[in-house]
Amino acid sequence: MSHLYNAIANEIVNKALQGAIVNERRNSLLWWRETLYSLSFKRGYRSLSSAVATVTMAYDLHLQMPAFYPQSVEYLLRETVRATLDVREESGVVSVTAFCRDLLESEEKFGLIQLLGQSPEEHERIPLLDFIKQILTTQNLDSQNVRNKVGIDPEKQISFGNLAVWLFRDLQARKLTISKKS
Fold first, then answer.
1. Cα–Cα distance, 46 to 59 (Å, whole number)
2. What is the value of pTM for the model shown?
């Protein structure tokens, strides 16, 4: 009988612990959304350029999330980007080439390299995140490389919110890959 009691008690404790973890994560996400503060750069997103803020928001959110997350997190990211940049979806678009150029010309490019790490030179298709790391490291942006390495039209207009989600997914995929190796 005590074995059954212990099993029930353990289940109750585990459920309470899971609930506390979910509540803590929700509170952290709401606080992040409310403050619009980057823990990575130790300043507000609105003090960063649109391109840098987009990458940094994706990165900061990635740090708060487990490898598997609810899809609503991507909507939270899109809406946070829109609120931060004070844009509507149709006016907040940029080409991938212009986005990468803005990152390359930003004062925070070396901070971004530290956050994202340097990427080895590759000759096949790579994630957008790795492409951004390459251009920040090599200081070389060739719009034809966008097509060859990332596989999209270099002048394709994409919203900052969708770019943030794209980068967030790349970060989460990297997290999954690392966790599989462990």
1. 16
2. 0.81
